[in-house]
């Protein structure tokens, strides 16, 4: 056993072995994997082994496609069979709502390069002769799906890694991981201690236990998962080719051929966690007792949809644990506050995602960047609010909904409310319907008095459409109030604060009392943050950004933080805010603020400490609505008083509450992009339109050389806005953009502009088409709608109203 290595990977399942292989493939050979038992002895060995490239997140879908296409390479490199069966996938829909979802999948497949296509029910029945076609209304075919041999794949990763210089130590449990003063790690095993520069926690069922060795409580939970294998079936034996892999959404069932029979599994609604507090170290290649009663409702549907299965005998039932994160996506990446400590766990679809996870993590460790947009898998999407009880509730919910539709306007109820602000009850009393962001409740829209406080979930316009329109009209014509506590807030102070921020951010530093919009780039010049930077004094700055990215951004800030001269802290819980926007907002502020609020005294992009009534506050003149507006930030103790004060003072001015849905409509009319939708870490600043805020002449900053190269060469694509022909349904994001019969781009966000009366979409197209006069269409739910590129904002393109 080596005494010193560059990387120690903990865990010998498919994910750990994939990470090991990709590290060696990308050039790091001084790497080892440590496994407590035999390879595959956790969840890997009993997995059903299905694979397909379809995912609700197109960025994860890309990594799934990479994983599937990798298997032939693995066989060639390792000489080990992966047991590849590329049968294709058949996704069966039993309702029009599911057909809408499949239309979204087909559209995404166009720009992902997937050859997915709808087939008739008769054609589906020819592909899968054991189905009763009476229960289905449509089907989507994907030629890339199928299944593999879980053990064969894992061994192929392991053999290929060994051939490239890696070593694997089996039957050697890691008992501790200890950070060393020099930044390395002591990985303490039953057979000795290894000094490692990097540690990867790929512990699978034991990832929580491995994380707790360093004080980390990972938000993952194991669930019991069952599938059955039938006896030999005449229909299978006589079929001219191997049965296709199928997902029956209404039955919540997946199915594939296994030998001369069929394998059928389900994600039942009454899911049961396994070992919710800790995983026993002596749990080996064991299965759990079958519980057919628990999955009986799904099996009954399955037997009805596939009658031949009911006639077949059951050969065996497999019940084994798999780990899940609260949203069902993996947890991947560096852990904030732990130098060179990485995680790759919660990968429940290991044979669809394991290769992509291994590639992304290895690239991140070696190149400093995952090489793909993996925000949906980043461990930093969760904070310390994701407790064990929260994880338990959300994993149960996610598991039970594995094959159910998640509508774009649907808010799931489990583990809520968790984080709330002092005016949560005030907003609820006014009819607020809430969403949750980074665990915090925030108002989406307000149901008028007499209207049921429930939104119809749909891919089309819901019953929220008219109330949101009224909120937008109030902001544009009078004054609206929205809570903004769900922004991320950071305070940076100290003698070195300005130098730190000037190096970290790509824009100019504001003078005292001023605000500057400031993108943040990584070393490759890609946009990893979009901030409002406010300077309250010579050595005091506030940064406002995207709430869900708080942990992600803190991890980056702290990585670059100097050892002295700068203090950084999150103000997530000790600074909350309300924003007012609209032509009457100045009059409202003037009624409550002690001081001159005229345009001369308080110009656009100004900020000051102030007293609002009796309340100490920070007031900034800025608004994401495109209207004259102000943000008022206070400590939580004062928020209820501030809300009451503004409500009373604004009554005569027509003050109206508005929520996130109205804000989406308002910002789309202004062509304002938003982090995590329009701005992601795979786009450069000149692609996003943020290049105008990049100060290349201010001196060196992170990503400057790459940004300079992008400006010099010109961006390859650009974020643009479209007015889409109205069909009663709007783009939501990830729809394909067509130009002259070719798919040329994708939508990043969309909705209805209630002020301009147009359906609007933002999206990326090749730069050469960014000023094209015509020929565009946007495919929405399978319908290609004519779209007109909007070269300037559809509302107030000069920005006169917010500067007035």
How many distinct beta strands?
38
Q: What is the approximate shape?
A: globular
**CA-to-CA gap between the ends?**
71 Å
Overall pLDDT, averaged?
96
Q: Give helix % range.
A: 25-40%
Structural class: alpha+beta
Oligomer: single chain
Rg measurement, Å? 27 Å
* Low-pLDDT windows of residues: none
Strand content: 25-35%
Number of helices: 21
| Largest beta-sheet details | 9 strands, mixed
List keywords for this structure.
804 residues; alpha+beta; 8-stranded mixed beta sheet; 21 helices; globular
Could you characterize what this model shows?
With 804 residues, this protein is of the alpha+beta class. It is 27% helix and 28% strand. The chain has 21 helices and 38 strands. Strands 4, 5, 6, 12, 13, 14, 15, 16 and 17 form a nine-stranded mixed β-sheet that branches. Strands 1, 2, 8, 9, 10, 11, 18 and 19 form an eight-stranded mixed β-sheet that branches. A six-stranded mixed β-sheet has the order 29-30-31-28-22-32. Strand 20 and strand 21 form a beta hairpin. Helix 2 crosses helix 5, helix 13 crosses helix 18 and helix 16 (585-592) packs across helix 17 (639-650). It is globular and about 80 Å long.
């Amino acid at each position: 056993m080596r005494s010193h290595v560059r990387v120690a990977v903990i865990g010998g399942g498919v994910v750990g072995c994939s990470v090991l292989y990709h590290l060696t493939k990308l050039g790091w050979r001084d790497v080892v994997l440590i496994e407590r038992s035999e390879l595959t002895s956790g969840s890997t060995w009993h997995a059903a082994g299905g694979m397909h490239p379809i995912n609700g997140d197109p960025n994860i879908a890309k990594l799934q496609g990479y994983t599937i296409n990798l298997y032939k390479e693995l066989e060639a490199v390792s000489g080990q069979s992966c047991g590849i069966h590329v049968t294709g996938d058949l996704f069966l829909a039993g309702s029009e709502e599911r057909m809408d979802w499949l239309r979204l999948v087909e559209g995404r497949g166009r720009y992902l390069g997937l050859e997915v296509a709808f087939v008739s029910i008769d054609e589906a029945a020819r592909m899968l002769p054991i189905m009763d076609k009476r229960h289905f209304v449509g089907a989507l075919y994907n030629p890339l799906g199928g299944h593999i041999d879980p053990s064969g794949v894992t061994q192929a990763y392991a053999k290929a890694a060994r051939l490239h210089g890696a070593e694997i130590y089996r039957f050697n449990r890691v008992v501790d991981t200890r950070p060393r003063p020099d930044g390395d790690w002591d990985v303490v095993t039953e057979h000795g201690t290894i000094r490692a520069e990097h540690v990867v926690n790929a512990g699978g069922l034991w990832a929580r236990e491995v994380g707790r060795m360093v004080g980390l409580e990972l938000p993952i939970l194991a669930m019991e998962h069952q599938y059955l294998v039938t006896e030999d079936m005449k229909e299978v034996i006589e079929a001219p080719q191997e049965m296709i892999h199928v997902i029956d959404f209404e039955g919540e069932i997946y199915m594939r051929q296994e030998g001369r029979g069929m394998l059928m599994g389900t994600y039942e609604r009454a899911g049961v966690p396994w070992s919710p507090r800790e995983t026993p170290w002596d749990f080996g290649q064991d299965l759990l007792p079958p519980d057919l009663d628990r999955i009986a409702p799904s099996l009954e549907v399955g037997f009805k949809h596939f009658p031949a299965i009911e006639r077949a005998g059951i050969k065996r039932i497999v019940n084994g644990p798999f780990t899940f994160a609260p949203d069902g996506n993996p947890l991947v990446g560096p852990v904030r506050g732990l130098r060179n400590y990485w995680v790759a766990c919660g990968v429940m679809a290991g044979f669809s995602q394991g290769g992509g996870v291994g590639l992304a993590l290895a690239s991140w460790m070696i190149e400093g960047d995952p090489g793909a947009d993996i925000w949906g898998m980043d461990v930093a999407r969760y904070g310390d609010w994701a407790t064990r009880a929260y994880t338990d509730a959300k994993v149960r919910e996610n598991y039970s909904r594995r094959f159910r539709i998640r509508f774009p306007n649907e808010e799931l109820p489990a583990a809520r409310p968790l984080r709330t602000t002092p005016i949560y009850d005030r907003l609820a009393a006014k009819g607020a319907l809430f969403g949750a962001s980074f665990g915090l409740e925030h108002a989406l829209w307000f149901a008028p008095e007499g209207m049921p406080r429930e939104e119809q979930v749909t891919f089309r316009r819901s019953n929220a459409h008219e109330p949101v329109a009224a909120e937008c009209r109030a902001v544009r014509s009078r004054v609206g109030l929205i809570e903004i506590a769900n922004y991320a807030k950071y305070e940076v102070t100290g003698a070195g604060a300005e130098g730190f921020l000037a190096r970290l951010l790509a824009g100019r530093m504001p003078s005292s009392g001023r605000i500057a919009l400031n993108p943040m780039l990584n070393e490759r010049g890609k946009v990893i943050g979009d901030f409002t930077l406010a300077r309250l004094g010579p050595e005091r700055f506030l940064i406002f950004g995207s709430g869900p990215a708080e942990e992600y951004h803190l991890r980056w800030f702290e990585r670059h933080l100097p050892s002295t001269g700068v203090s950084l802290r999150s103000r997530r819980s000790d600074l909350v805010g309300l924003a007012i926007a609209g032509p009457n907002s100045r009059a409202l502020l003037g009624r409550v603020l002690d001081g001159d609020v005229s345009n001369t005294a308080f110009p656009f992009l100004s900020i000051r400490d102030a007293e609002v009534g009796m309340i100490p506050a920070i007031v900034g003149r800025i608004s994401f609505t495109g209207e004259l507006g102000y943000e008022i930030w206070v400590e939580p103790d004062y928020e209820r008083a501030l809300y009451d004060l503004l409500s009373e003072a604004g009554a005569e001015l027509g003050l109206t509450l508005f929520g996130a849905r109205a804000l989406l409509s308002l910002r789309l009319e202004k062509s304002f992009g938003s982090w995590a939708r329009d701005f992601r870490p795979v786009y450069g600043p000149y692609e996003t339109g943020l290049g105008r805020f990049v100060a290349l002449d201010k001196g060196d900053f992170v990503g400057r050389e790459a940004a300079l190269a992008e400006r010099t060469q010109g961006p390859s694509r650009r974020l643009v806005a479209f007015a889409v022909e109205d069909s009663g349904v709007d783009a939501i994001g990830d729809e394909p953009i067509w130009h002259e019969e070719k798919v040329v781009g994708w939508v990043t966000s969309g909705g209805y502009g209630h002020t301009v009366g147009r359906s609007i979409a933002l999206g990326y197209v090749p730069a050469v088409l960014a000023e094209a006069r015509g020929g565009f269409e946007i495919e929405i739910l399978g319908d290609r709608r004519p779209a007109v590129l909007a070269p300037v904002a559809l509302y107030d393109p000069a920005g006169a109203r917010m500067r007035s």
